[in-house]
Amino acid sequence: MDLLAALEAERLVPDDAASVLLVGSRALGWEHARSDLDVVVVTTSPMEAVIDERHLIAPDEDVVAS
Fold this sequence. Notes:
By secondary structure, this protein is α+β, with helices and mostly antiparallel strands. The chain has one domain (1-66). Helices cover 17% and strands 20% of the residues. The protein has helices at 3-9, 25-28, and strands spanning 17-23, 38-43. It has a two-stranded antiparallel sheet. The chain is elongated, with a radius of gyration of 13 Å.
């Protein structure tokens, strides 16, 4: 299963997703055995979701807009 399919199976990609980006060490080819996956999901509206321990995120702000 590819990364996008895995994210979709976990319902981590909302219907209004405009883009799903792999960023960080894996995207740059700098990964090592303990590297995690850093994913950015760009949506057309603010995300509304319950965040639990299975899907750890640690943003400083509630919303990152551009």
